[in-house]
Amino acid sequence: MDALLSDAIAAARLARGIHLYFQEKGFSTDTKTGPTDLVTQADRETEAAIKDFLLSRYPDHAFLGEEGGQEKEAGYRWIVDPIDGTVNFAHGFPFYAVSIGLEVNGELELGVVLDSTRDELFWARRGQGAYLNGRPIHASETDRLIGSLLATGFPYDVNKDRENLIYFERVLEKGLTVRRPGAAALDLCYVAAGRLDGFWEVKLKPWDVAGALVVLREAGARVTGMQGEPYELGSRYIVASNGLIHDELLATIHGRG
Ligand code: IPD
Ligand code: CA
Ligand code: CA
């Protein structure tokens, strides 16, 4: 395994240690854009620790973190969500992760997502397959939407922009099975591992997706926008699936199914 990947994994393990420490010890919580948009002491300290760790090894690289933003541009850019699933973390609901992606000249090269409570490490490097705790993973083979397990998520300002409530209702009205686990990076890795057949969300940010995107692609998943166009980091929409149910899922979301 090369140094970039093993350092990304080491940074994720460092983050997990901080998550578990604060779960044990307790932590302070503040709000960001509204009463349900939380940030904890653990989010800030985890991001600072990952940044120190990676930039001490790669001082020329750029770093984009959810909590601290980005200071400079560079060909290599780490994109980090220190805790994906902060609301779950704040309540002790055991479904949250650290997500680390590395972009090289605008293209995602590797990704690492570590589920802190299950100690499940998802990772992938472009062209080298996707792995969960060292074992290769693949998207599922479910070929009909009706037997699929789906998931979605909602932004903190969901009442300002109700778009996904409409999509969600269309999917539910068809009697489909859909979950809202609360950590997009893990939801996406679950599609890669075949635990979910499909996932969609509106308004995710680059740090929610960067760690999982290479994992998805290397696991054979299909990742698009709402019209089936290839997904690009920062797009407003993401739809990820095993590929087989993709068109049916898009049609249902758009009320055509
Ligand atoms: C959130 C989670 C959630 C998704 C939200 C994200 P955060 O990230 O991924 O599942 O529905 O859109 O903002 O705030 O926990 O890092
Ligand atoms: Ca996030
Ligand atoms: Ca976060």
List the topology elements.
Layout: H1 3-25, E1 29-31, E2 38-40, H2 41-57, E3 62-65, E4 69-70, E5 76-84, H3 86-91, E6 97-104, E7 107-115, E8 120-125, E9 130-132, E10 135-136, E11 149-152, H4 163-173, E12 177-179, H5 184-192, E13 198-202, H6 206-218, E14 222-224, E15 237-241, H7 246-253
Parallel strand pairs: 3-5, 11-12, 11-13
Antiparallel strand pairs: 1-2, 3-4, 5-6, 6-7, 7-8, 8-9, 9-10, 13-15, 14-15
Residues 81, 84-86, 153-155, 182-184, 201, 204, 208 line the site of D-MYO-inositol-1-phosphate.
Would you write up a description of this structure?
This protein is of the alpha+beta class and 257 residues long. It has helices spanning 3-25, 41-57, 86-91, 163-173, 184-192, 206-218, 246-253, and strands at 29-31, 38-40, 62-65, 69-70, 76-84, 97-104, 107-115, 120-125, 130-132, 135-136, 149-152, 177-179, 198-202, 222-224, 237-241. It has 2 domains: 2-136, Fructose-1,6-Bisphosphatase, Chain A, domain 1 (2-Layer Sandwich), CATH 3.30.540.10; 145-253, 3-Layer(aba) Sandwich (D-Maltodextrin-Binding Protein, domain 2), CATH 3.40.190.80. The strands form 3 sheets. It has an 8-stranded mixed sheet, sandwiched between helices. Helix 1 (3-25) packs antiparallel against helix 2 (41-57) and helix 5 (184-192) packs parallel to helix 6. The mean pLDDT is 97. The protein binds D-MYO-inositol-1-phosphate and calcium ion (2 copies). D-MYO-inositol-1-phosphate (IPD) is lined by residues 81, 84-86, 153-155, 182-184, 201, 204, 208.
